[in-house]
UniProtKB/TrEMBL annotation:
Superkingdom of the source species: Bacteria
InterPro entries: FN3_sf, Ig-like_fold
Species for this entry: Croceivirga radicis
Protein name, UniProt field: Fibronectin type-III domain-containing protein
Amino acid sequence: MKNKPSLLSILSIFCVIGCSKNLDLVNEIIGPPTKVNLVYPENNGICTTGTAINELISEVEFDWSDAAIGNRYQVNLTNLITNEQTTYPSEDSSINIELLKGTPYQWSVVTYLDETAENIESDTAVFYNSAEQITSYVPFPANAITPHNGQEVHTATITLLWKVTDIDDDVVSYSVYFGPNENPELYSQTTATLIENIQVENNTEYYWYVVSTDANDNSSKSNVFEFFTRY
């Protein structure tokens, strides 16, 4: 890894911790860990470089930039079909991971610095691990644009806006589930990526998600997003 803290800095940190037990002073000496940039697999792409393990699994090398400050990493990997998340520790800025073929994944990298209690997560990326038999790809799950997850809304009328990436670029419809319940009911079916002029009650928590369907009847469900009204 490039740009590791110097030995003198590390020794100074140990002295600070040993004498004062104050981790806040560590950041004054060396700074908090820094975010990395994801390199491969590329966002919204198809990973074709995996080494076949068997008919179902291939091994893929994940790469990211070295952290300017940090000495270890954790890869967070989510299977977008099952929503199962797995973590992989690494001391280098790359790691080989076995993946199911023909499966969409989301990944990010968390940077740690052992001498502090802090960490920072990279942006996320989504990709498909390729498979020979695939002729049509399921759309990636929709991302909320507005209201974004956890947002506080200050108007009585809102617009639901989302974004979907599809490798085949053949999404034909969206089913939008929306309401004040954690399991919202179907609100609208549309071919657009927004719904305007929705009336909302004050001091209410709302939930919504999107099911995207393509021309081959493949569909994906987004995460459930939530927002709170206060106007």
